[in-house]
Amino acid sequence: MKSVYATELSAASEVAIETETCLDCLERIGVDELHLVTVVPVNVHGGTIGIDHEKRRRRVLRRYRNSIEDVGFDVETHVVRGTPHRRINGIAETVGADLSIVGSRGKSPLENRLIGSTTRNLARTTVVPLLVNRIERETESPDLVEKHLFERLLYATDFSANADRAFEAFSYLRHAAQEATLVHVETETSPGPDGDRAPEERLEELTDRLEEWDIDATIDVRMGDPADEILAAEATHEPTTTLVGSRGQSKFRRLLLGSVSESVVANAAGNVFLVPARRTA
């Protein structure tokens, strides 16, 4: 599997890229080729006196590359100029990536924006599964919130086609997963997906499939606002990563990312693995 790893070359990015436990998790799910991508924004001018931005970034990426190759990955580096999320998505499509990874400092009590604009735009436009790797903030020496990326998964489903697509990710995540909690949230206006089948019954079918892969699975059915309840379930079960599908479709998907998915990506305390809808013409 190929993965694009986007970095802005900060201390936070460095800890995410060079943490061996994190790299081991990626190797376990089948990633053997990493494409390190850093984007020089269009508003950063190459002619800044005394600073060669692209040369500096290539130098730092070479150091990252050497560290990751020592662990056993094939590594390519890309220093590009443009709008970050567009260039990251473009490289993911060009190299045929199976997933993209971006670090996020998460929630800041001093900001209205809960995640960076690049992370938010990637969540809205990604064409491959996106791992939002949560990093500590408000510290000079940041660390990953969870180093074991896929050890304990929280899977949120409304039994839609997009949620089913997200469940398919277990086909490779299972190689690093030990536990999974399957969450479904009923609302007052739509108490269930089928009139003749209880959510518990449908979730039990999914747990049976996971237990065939030696994943210890449990279910959690809730009532209320889906985004709020999924975040509450994360606080209760403390997964290392929350797995969700997005509702975005077609070339306009950036405008259609489900509000539930966007809220989870923005507000989750830990990592989020977002699986986009299948592309349509």
Automatic annotation (TrEMBL):
<feature type="domain" description="UspA">
    <location>
        <begin position="32"/>
        <end position="132"/>
    </location>
</feature>
<dbReference type="InterPro" id="IPR014729">
    <property type="entry name" value="Rossmann-like_a/b/a_fold"/>
</dbReference>
<dbReference type="InterPro" id="IPR006015">
    <property type="entry name" value="Universal_stress_UspA"/>
</dbReference>
<comment type="similarity">
    <text>Belongs to the universal stress protein A family.</text>
</comment>
<dbReference type="InterPro" id="IPR006016">
    <property type="entry name" value="UspA"/>
</dbReference>
<feature type="domain" description="UspA">
    <location>
        <begin position="150"/>
        <end position="276"/>
    </location>
</feature>
<protein>
    <submittedName>
        <fullName>UspA domain-containing protein</fullName>
    </submittedName>
</protein>
<dbReference type="Pfam" id="PF00582">
    <property type="entry name" value="Usp"/>
</dbReference>
